[in-house]
Amino acid sequence: MRSTLSPPRRPDSGDLLDLDAAAETYAQGVGALPEGPQRRVARDAMVASALPFAARLARRYRNRGEPLEDLEQVARLGLVKAVDRYDPARGSFTAFAVITITGELRRHFRDHSWGVHVPRRLQELSLDVTQATAVLTSELSRAPSTTEIADYLGVEEAEVRTGQELAAAYTATSLNRPVSEDGRAELGELIGAPDGELTLVEDRLTVTTLIAHMPARERRILAMRFYGNHTQDEIAAQFGISQMHVSRLLSKALTWLRTAMLSDAPAAWPESPTATAPSARITHADDAAVTVTVTGEIDRDTAGMVRDELLRAVKERGAAARVAVDFAQVPFIDAAGMAALLAGEAAAGEAGVSLVVRRAPAHVRRVLATAGIDRLFEEPAAV
């Protein structure tokens, strides 16, 4: 259980003994006096004789963000309360006054000095740690360790660390505090505001890195379209290709960028090892499955061909319970190609058979998985 910090040894013990004797004499004599000027004069004299004692207690709490004059006023208020409530039968006056005056000083710090609301128990813990640190620093001629403070207070080291951290909440700095010699600039003006563009920095850096892995032609097409604001027709004329070809190249580049940005380890740019013309045809059929082999890029120009072949395979499957689509030679697929796959899956479902995708390259697998249609994969991804 945490103990309350014991106050440092008091100097001038002889003076305190005299003060205890004076207080006892006052308490015994004031009871025989009627309410009136004589009683008030005796009370004022007792308070005046103890003012240096109250001032010493106030000075123990200096250098904590509160003016010493204010602390002395609070200590005097506590002294008046101690004089009014003192009962010789309950012990010495100085012991009672220390408790009363210290309590007033702590209450003052708790109610007037904390920049944010902190529970009373934690406020007192912070004050104990601060006072113990000052005492031990004086005794050891160095800053005490957390262990030494904990031993001094009889608490756990975790409580000492909590008390030290609470010091940051003691005094809040005003945002209107001047920070320039002429007083024109305030602290609040130097604090940055949330930058909405900051969240895009990582995406921009990632895109820049990924574009560097693209072929030179695709990089230049992206730059002309999105940085030069050229139309697809203008880009086509620059490269001597059709506008439709430019559209396919842009779609391929953007699809790859989107997939790569969502992947932990983006695939390399998909390159076709051979100049195989796009095709889709039934290459095998037996009682177990009908295989449709697709080659080349599947985009808006070739998706219709793939869809028609898938629908034909479903219709002419015979006794086969499965339509397998071989993607081993498909380096790229866009939204139109995925729509063709979904049309084939829907037709297969109506016919009571399944449609699966086999041997898709890693990049195509990522595209399909990102689109949420990885359920069509016949085999799990390689680890």
TrEMBL record:
Gene3D superfamilies: 1.20.120.1810, STAS domain (3.30.750.24), Winged helix-like DNA-binding domain superfamily/Winged helix DNA-binding domain (1.10.10.10)
The keyword Ribosomal protein is assigned to this record: no
Keyword tags: DNA-binding, Sigma factor, Transcription, Transcription regulation
Chain ranges passing through the membrane: none
Single Gene Ontology BP annotation: DNA-templated transcription initiation
InterPro entries, A to Z: MlaB-like_STAS, RNA_pol_sigma-70_dom, RNA_pol_sigma-B/F/G, RNA_pol_sigma70, RNA_pol_sigma70_r2, RNA_pol_sigma70_r3, RNA_pol_sigma70_r4, RNA_pol_sigma_r2
GO molecular function: DNA binding; sigma factor activity
Key word Repeat present: no
Coiled-coil segments: none
Domain STAS, residue spans: 287-383
One Pfam family linked to the record: Sigma70_r3
Protein's UniProt name: STAS domain-containing protein
